[in-house]
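Notebook entry, structure prediction.
Reason for the run: the old model in the group folder had no record of what sequence produced it. Starting over properly, with the input documented here first.
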Amino acid sequence: MADNSDREGLILGLGNPLLDMTIAANEEFLKKYDLKPNDAILAEEKHMPLYQEMVDKFEVDYSAGGATMNVLQVAQWIIGKPYTTVFMGCIGRDFFSNVLEDRAKEKGVIGRFQYDSEKSTGTCAVVLTNNGANRSLCANLAAANCFTIDHLKKEENFKFVEMAKIYYISGFFLTVSPDSILEVANYALSKNRLFIMNLSAPFICQAFKEQMMAAFPYIDILFGNECEAAAFGKAQNMDITDLKELALMMSNLPKKNTNRSRIIIITQGGSPAIVAKDGCVQEYPVPQLPPEKIVDTNGAGDAFVGGFLAKLVCNKPIETCMRSAFYTATHVIQRVGCTCVGTPDKEILQD
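New structure, fully documented this time:
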């Protein structure tokens, strides 16, 4: 794949567009709503009062979010060319949907949204504890849960599938439209293009393991953190606790596109990231940041992927992609939300 990152629509992402609502709280607040630090769940009935209490009792920071949108916005920031990325997902027709659309456009992301007039735009409670070092996510998908394959197949939308060279889909989207995922996966396979996913959360690996494994043979690159990888291994009855061995086993699972090997990338917070490919495992040390500079770890994983894809679409080697991934993750955790400010440091990111 040539370095053609100046062309529009090179990266297509499917996901759940959400308005992030971020607060700083304590462990007692987490316990009240049965939330856990560094976890991500879908809201149940017992969580519904959470959002209003956040508005009533806390200073809330609002930002356009959702895992896939985060990834694309960060990738756009590194690439520096508008409209290199395209996002598809479902939103309502309300104030929050206007915010999401405007934010996507501001960041240079092409939004091909599906609209649901009966559902409100999705929201995600982001509860920070331990001075921002831990984060708990509770997503109320609302309209985001209503995306359909019909929207994807519309001629004016499917042309973006045809244009893309890289397809990125969050594991969260397995709860919404697995048939859309397989539609894109099969197209990627037919054109020998990169199909990339993320484990996203332990509950995805467990409660949606059938949907995950239907998509897994198509995956060329898979991202996840240590908790998600462990949950995947447990769900698939892999009797392995060593993350390196687990990553290798995951990389060797059946794969439809035999033109390239699968790459498994597992992050471990401040510990080295694990990359498994072709029967080998390599560790990449994480640049260390003083604890006092860490403001909000929410979005760090998405920023990591965004930085990686920004260099991957330029056909850069994995070492360059990893350096960019660490750079964007480190940048994002020093501010609230998955946001990038200023201009990227070209010296750090040079090949």
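Summary: The mean pLDDT is 92.
The old model has been moved to the deprecated folder.
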